[in-house]
């Protein structure tokens, strides 16, 4: 690997981490779309900063751009608060307007500058190593690495300092207010960090793909864990994985690095979406099917419990009587036999002790809705896991 | 009663949503140590009253004091059980972690919860019979269990005054009994508890103080004196007969 290759992967990874952290909270706050809005509407701020400094690399650009990101959030909330339009409509109204103001500003005034729209939308990671940070003539590495590295450092320190405040105001804004943690301050703090991160990631991945880096890792992690810290950790892991794998995919295909990173993120999400152990599509479908069978099992056991007479308990009678097809009857019978809930003697079915106990507990639970009655059978049956 | 200290005083409180008043000129003086129910029809402003006392909703007029001082000076004396439906139970966290949030108020900004906060949270979970569920993801709990987690979180606040927004809403028998027992214990410990309550039948049994509310305050005082057909009719606007009399 050449040093430029290493630098590109390093920048991509740091961008991914810096995006994954605020992204996790945006996803939990159901504000994923706002990152899309911010990523577009920072453009006029960027251009304005450029007009003031005439330097594309001035830190002032980051500040003016981040400010226009926060202005987006304020405008969206203002429009939404009038209750004349809904939130998604408000977002859809605000950011294209701000973005196009930026586009017009570039067209009118900055034609001679290389603020080109393609780079803004897609970024160009491959060029990042060419722009060096020179101090007293010595080369300290690519400039964008320094910019996004600083942003990441700030994000991580804020996360450590205000983790508890972020958690409580995201989970329960009412209690957070009552306890004196101003959710409004936290909200705008988070929006500022998100805006600054978007600006810092701009060079590398551009306005459209930065959204993917914020949302996709967090959305993927959400399907895999029940713990906020782990969710943050997993988001970071997925982000970095996509950054490095994406780089090599682009290398191999000779295609855009940011495009390849996003493709990898999409693929990773799809895999997790399908195969996540608890919340994945396949496991949900499997669980639904199991629950269906278990409801049938319970119906069947209740029937046995209610009818002592032999004619009601004959194996063939069940097909006609409970009105089930053969396949279903068989799978229910198999499940009951496998769990030692019934015994079949000369085609006559009877409940075992265990079957009787299970049925009693289940009835008890259904009547009283008291969970303690079914703790012992919860592990074996999806039906009772709430 | 006259000699009793006033725990919560509400003066001329008016709250409006979009210029439509939902609470109009409310005056209340809630004595220390009472168990008070707030009753009234849907949309009467019961939750709004609690939320504006706690500073969650900004009133357009009036003031609130807790033991004679504004709420934001007295936060640490006040515990809060919000409506269960007000949060996202899919949030990635455990029962214990939610209860720990009750200790955040005393910690203040930046400081992290440590061993003693964890101990407080575990004790609170035990009081509501949820200790064995401490590591369970909150969306794996039943509605009643979630309500008990919320109650435990308020207990972890270790407050003198508690506000509870419909804690009995849709809970199972075990949870109802747990809540009642906790209420009794709080009263025994001399705490003041204000509960938004829906079930009029149980008011005389569970509470000793009551406020009738329907945008305006209809009446407030001891259950024995004011929980009668007259006030119920004034509050609910129909001829009301209390089927359970004390």
UniProtKB/TrEMBL annotation, chain A:
GO-annotated cellular components: ATP-binding cassette (ABC) transporter complex
Pfam families: ABC-3
Membrane topology listed for this record: Multi-pass membrane protein
Annotated signal peptide: none
Compartments in which it is found: Cell membrane
Chief localisation class: membrane
One BP term from GO: response to zinc ion
Record has Transmembrane helix as a keyword: yes
InterPro entries cross-referenced by the UniProt entry: ABC_BtuC-like (IPR037294), ABC_TroCD (IPR001626)
Keywords: Cell membrane, Membrane, Transmembrane, Transmembrane helix, Transport
Membrane-crossing residue ranges in chain numbering: 6-28, 37-54, 60-78, 90-107, 144-163, 175-198, 204-224, 231-250, 256-276
Highest taxon of the lineage: Bacteria
Family: Belongs to the ABC-3 integral membrane protein family.
Protein name: Zinc ABC transporter, permease protein
Organism from which the protein derives: Polaribacter irgensii 23-P
TrEMBL record, chain B:
Domain ABC transporter, residue spans: 8-240
One MF term in the entry's GO annotations: ATP binding
Lineage: Bacteria, Pseudomonadati, Bacteroidota, Flavobacteriia, Flavobacteriales
Keyword entries, A-Z: ATP-binding, Nucleotide-binding, Transport
Any Pfam family: ABC_tran
SUPFAM superfamilies: P-loop containing nucleoside triphosphate hydrolases (SSF52540)
Stated name of the protein: Zinc ABC transporter, ATP-binding protein
Alphabetical list of InterPro entries matching this protein: AAA+_ATPase, ABC_transporter-like_ATP-bd, ABC_transporter-like_CS, Metal_Ion_Import_ABC, P-loop_NTPase
Family stated for the protein in its record: Belongs to the ABC transporter superfamily.
Presence of keyword Transport: yes
Species annotation: Polaribacter irgensii 23-P
